[in-house]
Amino acid sequence: MSRAGVAGLARGTNYVFRGGGAIPDRAAEGVGDFRGVLVVPVPPDTIVFGTVADPGSLPVILQRLEALGMHVHSVHRVRELPGTVRRAGG
Predict the structure, then answer these.
(1) Is residue 26 within 8 Å of 89, Cβ to Cβ?
(2) Could you tell me which residues are beta bridge partners of residue 42?
(3) What is the reported pLDDT for 20?
(4) Which pLDDT value is given to residue 39?
């Protein structure tokens, strides 16, 4: 693994959440360990990308997404986040 990869792990791990339903753009508000969030609506589904600082907070993030109306079907780690989608809260 390169030094850049090691440095990226120190700041958090990137994840993609895929599921049904729509959620507001500000999906990550109130979840301090979830940042750099990208919400991609693909009706009737939604894809949410974000960086999780502490993997132990994944259950809280999943609960938050479910509470916002997204039925999460899958969660996967990804190397990097796409930069061309609108940022939630931004």
Answers:
(1) yes
(2) 45
(3) 94
(4) 87
